[in-house]
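Hi U.,

Before I forget, here's the chain from the pilot set. I'm dumping it here mostly so it's searchable later in email.
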Amino acid sequence: MNIFNQTMATTTSDDCTGMMAFWADIDPDYVLRYQRWHNCEHVPERVSIPGFVEGRRYRNIDDKPRFLMFYDTQSTSVLSSDAYMAALNKPTPWTREALTHFRNPTRDIFSRLAIAGQRGKFTAPYITSLRFDLPEGVAEQYINRWIHEVVKQKNVERVRLYETDSAIANAATSERKVHGGGPGKQRYLVLIEESEPLATDEDNNIKRADDASGEDVQRQNEECSRYWLEVSHTKNESQAQ
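Structure:
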């Protein structure tokens, strides 16, 4: 590595092993104000916390007011740090207001198990969220084979596999008291970043990867949803250290 890279090295989401992900419906008459709050206050505030690297929000592909929000962090320990806990326990007035309009919320903390592919030149405009459980003892098969088959499929740029960190996710905070969202039912999360949307529900990269991997493994409690990108914030180089 040259001297310039040593002094200007930037942590990217490829380097991050922690993630906080939040799925929620937003009251239809509040969506515009929610977007303003999230774009202009909440994501920049969160990304400014030490150890946070990037924050994104995606909207359901059918344009219903259901959103996936997530933050990449250097590790899961960032998500129980004093700085993050202080933010969660002292929400701004606008945050308190916005969180009252969340419906069917699920908030989880994840640790990355595997990654395949490369992030595109720009933030992925489309993403598929797949949450599921696996029979005991078969997760390694998914790490070694399945996601590498997914990343070979049409328009797929990068695939990340995560496991929940329930100890951190269950922390009681002031924000949680407002939105009421706790961890989901499933242990695993796969995020599939795509350069273009799938043409139809039958145009299914997950099914193609299942067939190609040759794994005789049945995912359980599966929930799959697709989204398009609304906003992404990252630290610049001078802030990243």
